[in-house]
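To whoever is on call:

I kicked off a structure prediction for a single chain this morning and the downstream step that reads the tokens threw a length-mismatch warning. I double-checked the sequence; it's 157 residues and nothing unusual in it as far as I can see. Pasting both halves so you can look.
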Amino acid sequence: MGIQIDVVVDYPVNDEVERVLGLAEAVGEPVTVTFLWEGGVQAERAVLVPAATLALWEHWAPTTYPENDAGDESPAAAEEPELAHPAEFGAFTLFRRRMGGRTAVARSGVVVAELLNPDEAHWLQEKARDVRQGFMNPKQKAAFEEFLARQPPLDER
């Protein structure tokens, strides 16, 4: 899915996060990122999805991403996320949501992208594609119905 970038973040000294966020915004497509937070035990993988792309996926996806009750989540994802102040990286501010595990990325007060769990991003993209491929706008639907009406019955062929 999209571009894959691995970045080591030396929070808060390094500007790697700002560069990655700027790149994702410029590319305009989902970017898979692995964060190796300083002092962290485990890498955190996420997909940075531009806001317009996410809006399109959520428009076409018929339902929301199902919660995983099977216990297949990583231990970090299963914990209740703690409330924290927004994290600022240059022009970008990250707002981690307590519910759903998403992180909104804002620049100058406008959400430009969201960090999603890779499984959720893949699921949304697939569902949106499936529904969109089955959709016909009203003109297409009327033309198709007219075409079908002109076809002879199957027993006359």
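Update from on-call: the warning came from a stale cache, not from the record. Cleared it. Sanity check on the structure: Residues 69-78 have pLDDT under 50 and may be disordered.
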